[in-house]
Task: structure prediction
Amino acid sequence: MSRYLLQGGRVVDPASGRDEICDLRIEGGAIAEIGRLAPRGGEETIAARGLLVAPGLVDLCVHLREPGFEEAETIRSGAQAALAGGFTAIAAMPDTVPPIDNEASVAYVRMKGEEARGARVYPAGALTRGRAGQHLSEMGGMRRAGAIAFTDEDEAVHGADVLLRALRYASMLNAPILTRCEDKGLRGRGMVSTGLIADLLGLPSIGAGTEEIMVERNVRLAHSIRTDLHLMHISTAESLREVAQAKAAGVAVTCSVTPHHITFNEEKVKSFDPVYKYFPPLRSELDRKALIEGLRSGTVDAISSAHSPRGDAEKNLEFFHAAPGTGALETVFGVLYSRLVLTEELPLARLLAALSLAPARILRVPGGRLAAGEPADIACFDVSTEYSIDPAHFASRSRVTPFAGWQVRGRAQHVFVGGEPRLRDGKLAP
Amino acid sequence: MTPPSREPHPDSRPNPRPEVVAGAATGASAGAGAPGDERRPWRRRHLLDVASLSREEIEFLFETARSFREVSTRSVKKVPALRGRVVVNLFYEPSTRTRISFTLAAQRLSADVVDFNGETSSVKKGETLLDTARNIIAMGVDTVVLRHPAPGAPQFLSERVQACVINAGDGAHAHPTQGLLDLFTVIDKLGSVENKRIAIVGDIRHSRVARSDMWAFLRFGAKVVLVGPPTLVPSSLRDIGVDVSYSLDEVLPEVDVLCLLRIQSERQEQGLFPSLEEYSRLFGLNSERMRRARPDVLVLHPGPINRGIEITPEVADGPRSAILEQVTNGLAVRMAALYLTAGGDA
Result:
């Protein structure tokens, strides 16, 4: 294992509050020391002047589509896309075909993830067998095979009894449960947020209550058995009020939001452009602002790209028929750094915490910290040069993004995973 | 910020111009509004909705429609305005009158017309709208008249193909030629809709006709009230300046125009109202209600009519009904829409 000295970067560690221009030494796959350091023989010096040196980003909800939809993404292309976006660890969602709901498929994702030499790929196992929301999956076996979390992801667990049993059962496995919040009955065939815009477009809609009712229910379930629970893709102000109240009352609930819900409001769907179709749908400007305020206050713990690569055949359709979701791993940091930090809407340390420290804590995996002894999962971003987001250069197989052509700052230059430079000068290591 | 794999916006290309035979198109003389005239109010290659049309554009289209209406009274009901152009009716939903209306409109302009029935054709083989449209357009089609169940489908198509796109109804979103012909008919009968009170009655939530009518009437200064049960009338629409009422009997005495919408029994099956009988009792237009309406009230219905449910036969066929005039005017409005989007001038 080689030794590296990152020289003269702005080292920001949200866990300790460190934010200074200094050097960082990597040795034996770990961070050896941080400070004003003199180069030593036998180590490679990397000039980091003008770069932001941050903990490698961690994403708790990424869809890698393999097995089943390899034309949209593979574990390899997804892990490399993550790396290109500054991520050093991602949780792979189990909504593949067949779903990741048993030991063998968890082992498969892990193996493919290791071969990819991108970001670390942590498999998340299905909570229920076949993600059908009925019988608990073999979580114990999957945990042994390397699953780090359990979730039915885009199928919010509908039965309260099922979720309650799953929370109880998983509490012996030291692995978190992640869930979306959505009442299927209320959602119906809805696809845009309820309100004037939906009513003018004639599109079936999804009310805020569809989410809020389930946030309230899920918080109560977690509280009733004193276990922790993570709520994904929160989209409304009222949901956040619910989460804030629960946190104040001592419930071990955490939540995350997506970059698109932070960046856009429902006005975007007026174009009928399928790239703006997401579940949950884009909400009002008030909701969008509340998500940012939640990030400032800490009510929102984490940001997840919700990377949902899509092929042309499922996305380049009329809004009504198009698949929801968008690729996101390679745009998250640049877009959010430019839209939130440069505009001073959010302090840099908060953005980094939401993208690294918090998700690592929620997933109970290493990472998210820059301190001596921690694994050297590090991302260096060029925050001084503006660049144009060009989907043609994505490592992801999916070219779907709402950010094509955006001028942003914060492109990942160097990314270390376990002390190994897997991205150098913005290029994937061969 | 454009999404990936999109062709250049068609509006950025020069307008293809149909063959215009001097004086033969409409009999109107060239002058202000001639092709290439920057003041000419109609510059669109697509007709996607009413909401985005200006009053000037609509007036210009009506002017064109009036001159075309005269053509339909001649013994030879044909002008060579779109000779050599090809129009395809791309219909993904059942329709009789709209399709026939567009077909006749195109034929009277001497265009060639082809029908594509999305319900029986290659759609069943899984072909997407975009693929189907590109294939058809590759055969030299100039104008696509699209009826599709997905709101926004015509806009989606217009941003990705070369041809002119006319929306003949997209889900619950818009049915611009219907909205325009309804406005045209009311102006024709009443002279103007300025400050007139117009009720649109029925299943507003699922109605593309209501969404086009309300914009058309609002644009010309009418006072619009949407009437129906709360499950079928989105109250959010108040924000664009319409009134909402849940009682037909309350608004009845003060309205100048009643636009009734077709009620679909499917909505009852979805549980949005309890029964057709109750709907008819609360929101159906019958002779008894007509006695409480203004004597000069105008009754419109886009068809097809559910006789005895939203309207009784004696009202539909009665002296205040303009239903058949709507159909006649529809032809002229569609001729104008086909002609103007193709680049013709009035």
In short: Confidence is low (pLDDT under 50) at residues 1-35 of chain B. The two ends of chain B are 37 Å apart (CA to CA).
